[in-house]
């Protein structure tokens, strides 16, 4: 188990004076263990939130790209409408009839 591996790290090969520190290390590990587990849980939640926000940003960037494409198409259509309107006004000023209303003959 990972927990026991963490609990016993540095304790197996202790000799001499270092053997006296083994119980102190284990005590500190036992005291800090709940806080460290809580911290690991909070970090996992933050990681999930960061991933979620990253996906949302990717989606919004895609929408922004779509909006820019629609704006370019709209600008092109506006230019075409302006050109047709000016052409129609010139024809009316010159007395010509629109293409669909010309008399046959």
Secondary structure layout:
Blueprint: H1 2-7, H2 18-94
Distance between the termini: 98 Å
Global mean pLDDT:
82
The shape is rod-shaped
Number of domain units: 1
Give the oligomeric state of the chains in this entry, treating copies of one chain as homo and distinct chains as hetero. Answer: single chain
Number of E-state strands:
0
Quickly give the structural class. mainly alpha
Approximate helicity band? over 70%
Structure description:
The protein has 105 residues and is mainly α. The protein has one domain (2-93). Helix content is 79%, strand content 0%. The protein has two helices and no strands. The protein has helices spanning 2-7, 18-94. The radius of gyration is 38 Å and the shape is rod-shaped. The N and C termini lie far apart (98 Å).
